[in-house]
Specification:
By secondary structure, the chain is an alpha/beta fold. It contains 13 helices and seven strands.
Length: 284
């Protein structure tokens, strides 16, 4: 979890404690408030100490519980402020995967230059529909989210129109060779996906680099991320997506991308790495 996010949770917790201690009817103990709200005392402790992320419903209940309902608007604004940067999967996927894809589509459409690094999967802009379908199904099973797979696939495929619209758009993709071998889908689906990658090499809007497994690395192949122009980084973790728009973060991720790029191969050499993975499937 990012330091900025944790600091924001702790700051919100301090404000919650202030409201509890300044209740109009006299200061409340944590036990008093827990009893009023029907919560375990541990929840009061975790929220005030920044160890749990409040929901809007939690904040409304807190404001009413301490006799200061007008404080809810302030508390909710604080929550939305830091949740716009740390987008938990639990909240994002409450309505399924399609809304998440729609949010991505808006940001991609605004962009002219995109840099992507993926260490475990094929980048979404380069996925086949079948590969994307299996990805969504895997994550739905893991996270227990609504299965709107077909709608999510259509939204992801629509995003790929960006590659064909011209206007100086350029997608710089880096992929670790491990992603070419990962059987998160049936072998024939992966084979078709690898064939698509081969066909994209040389396309004027796509620069595809592959980092071979035996390449010398200056930094570890950590989690995947996307840099949209010089304004936004989207990095994915198991609990959330990080949407980072401050100058320092964007510069850091671009420096990471450029460092990884030094280990990548392109053109005919990238073809060879992809073909090696394709042959390893032992399919026609």
């Amino acid at each position: 979890m990012s330091t900025d996010f944790q600091q924001a949770r702790e700051t919100l917790g301090v404000r919650l404690r202030e409201l509890r201690l300044s209740a109009p009817g006299g200061r409340l103990t944590g036990t008093d408030l827990a009893q009023r709200l029907g919560w375990p005392h541990s929840k009061i402790y975790k929220l005030e100490n920044g160890r749990q992320t409040a929901t809007s419903e939690d904040l409304r209940a807190w404001a009413e519980g301490v006799g200061q309902p007008n404080a809810f608007a302030e508390l909710d604004a604080r929550l939305k402020g830091f949740e716009s940067h740390i987008r938990s999967w639990r909240r994002q996927l409450a309505a399924g995967h399609r809304p998440v894809q729609d949010s991505w589509n808006i940001e991609v459409e605004r962009s002219r230059t995109i840099h992507a690094w993926e260490e475990a999967v094929i980048p979404g802009l380069l996925q086949t529909a079948d590969y994307a379908r299996h990805m969504f199904l895997r994550y739905s099973d893991l996270l227990g989210s609504t299965r709107d797979t077909d709608a999510a696939v259509r939204a992801r495929m629509k995003r790929q129109e960006w590659l064909y619209e011209g206007g100086g758009r350029r997608f710089h993709a880096l992929v670790w060779e491990a992603a070419l071998h990962a059987l998160i889908c049936p072998p024939p689906v992966l084979a078709a996906q690898l064939d698509r990658l081969t066909g994209l090499i040389g396309m004027d809007t796509v620069e595809l680099g592959i980092i071979p497994l035996n390449a010398s690395l200056k930094i570890p192949t950590a989690n995947g991320f996307w840099i949209l122009d010089d304004r936004l980084v989207i990095a994915e973790d198991w609990h959330a997506e990080l949407w980072l728009d401050d100058t320092d973060s964007v510069a850091t991720y671009l420096r990471v991308w450029n460092t990884l790029r030094e280990s990548a191969v392109y053109g005919a050499d990238a073809h060879n790495v992809i073909n090696r993975a394709r042959r390893a499937l032992n399919l026609p």
